[in-house]
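CATEGORY: protein folding

GOAL: derive structure tokens
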Amino acid sequence: MTIVIHSLRQRKKIEVRRRIIAVAVELFAAEGFDAVTVDRIAAAAGVGKGTVYNYFAAKDDIVVAFMATEEESVQAAVTRLAGSDEPLAEILASFVLSQFRSKRRHHAFVRVFLARMFSQTQEFMPYMVQMQKSVDPSLKKLFRSLQERGVMRADIPLEDLVLAFKTLQTGLTALWAIERPPFRTSERMVRLQMKLFCQGLETKS
């Protein structure tokens, strides 16, 4: 009986946390990050303000948690693409486009997120560092696999590859956030930029 009760409590905590994140993301997307208070988030989630703080020390922590959960779909894409027989540029383009597809339902939130990141960089930097802890392992796993298979040059340190790729991806994500569905320009630019990016990374046959 004790184990069952403990399990139910854990499931309830997980559900409450997910509800807080989902509600907060919707509010941020609709009204902007600064306009949304913790009181608003708590009321919309049907919990007390103290409950929100039990899970998150600040609003930014909710954003970090949301971005971390989004990485679950990225992990699935990495597993699939790591063994792909497609050309390197197409593999990396598919990786970026898969992220765009997973975030499409949160397009408005991504716009708010990027606006905050670009306008309040210094204030937001500690949270960016936290987010990279969930982002970097996926990229390192993908690049390491491609290097081991001989698809990508192995003489470039993984850290350099990840940094260069994330820099390019940030610009493409900004373009995607600015654009509206069906995102044809973003998709075309992703494929073009990855083709150019990979010219210096492909192994010579």
In short: Residues 60-205 form a domain with the Tetracycline Repressor; domain 2 fold (CATH 1.10.357.10).
